[in-house]
Amino acid sequence: MSEAAPQEPPAPVAPAAPVAAPPSAPQAPESDAALGRRAQILATEHWGLLAARGTAQSEVLTRITIFLTLVSAGLVTIGLLGQASGFSGWFGGASLAILAFLAAIGLMTQTRVLNVAEEDMMYVVAMNRLRSAYVDLDPQVAEYFLSSIHDDRKGMELTYSYLRPRSLSVLAGSSFMLIIVVTACVFGLLSGAIVAFSGGALGWAIGVGIAVGLVYCVVTISYGNWTFYSAWRRYVPRRPTPGPPPFWRQ
Predict the structure, then answer these.
(1) For the chain, what is the radius of gyration of the CA atoms?
(2) CA separation for the pair 158, 154 (Å, rounded)
(3) What is the secondary structure of the chain as a DSSP string?
């Protein structure tokens, strides 16, 4: 029998050329109704943030007023108790109790002031982001905003101070610093009173009171600074600030 001739392997089939996708049609502009609906939603959110910010500020000012009133009344009460007791006997225990109460209320008030300061910063950043959305709807309004349309730290600082960069005078004159100083004085008085009523010399009582007050100021200011920077380290802005505002002279 004759052997069959070997068959040649089939030629490789060339892969089919990819079919080009048809060009996408340009996105149609949104209707006036859709843009108006979006603007209304943004404005509603903006008013909600303004109301929440105003409520928080009003509440913390009330808390500060209550604390300062209690401090004034407590010191007057200590003076009256000293006159009634001749600054002896039960006067020491009563004074320490009043000062401890004032120190606790001061610490609570200071904590609330710090929380509201951070909340106010969050409200400002949120409203900056909403202004950014307004500019996306109508870019021509950007030149009329003094408040920033950028939701980063520089944008927040611009919204707080339109005409120049903020200085340390803002911190020195803030409600937060006021509460720190008053509460530090209360803690200093409490510490000095403990030393004095424990039999320590007057000089030691004054020195301990001053030292405790200064340490309290340093610790609380450092804590407030840490919370501020830690909040910004976790936040990712949507529209960072590209440079100085256009209405500032270079």
Answers:
(1) 33
(2) 6
(3) -PPPPPPPPPPPPPPPPPPPPPPPPPPPPPPHHHHHHHHHHHHHHHHHHHHHHHHHHHHHHHHHHHHHHHHHHHHHHHHHHHHHHTT-TTHHHHHHHHHHHHHHHHHHHHHHHHHHHHHHHHHHHHHHHHHHHHHHH-GGGGGG--S-S--SHHHHHHHH-SSS---HHHHHTSHHHHHHHHHHHHHHHHHHHHHHHTT--HHHHHHHHHHHHHHHHHHHHHHHHHHHHHHHHH---SS---SS-TTS--
At 207, phi and psi to the nearest 5?
-65, -45
Give residue limits of the domains in the chain: 35-234
Let me know: does 151 contact 125? Beta carbons within 8 Å.
yes
Got the DSSP string for 174-189? SHHHHHHHHHHHHHHH
* pTM reported for the whole predicted model: 0.79
Most confident range, picked from 33-37, 96-100, 158-162: 96-100
Query: d(Cα 163, Cα 168) in Å, to the nearest integer?
Result: 16
Dump the DSSP string for 26-44: PPPPPPHHHHHHHHHHHHH
Q: What percent of the chain has pLDDT over 90?
A: 58
How far apart (Å, rounded) are the C-alpha atoms in residues 32 and 174?
45
Give 186-224 pLDDT, tens digit per residue. Answer: 999 999 999 998 888 889 999 999 999 999 999 999 999
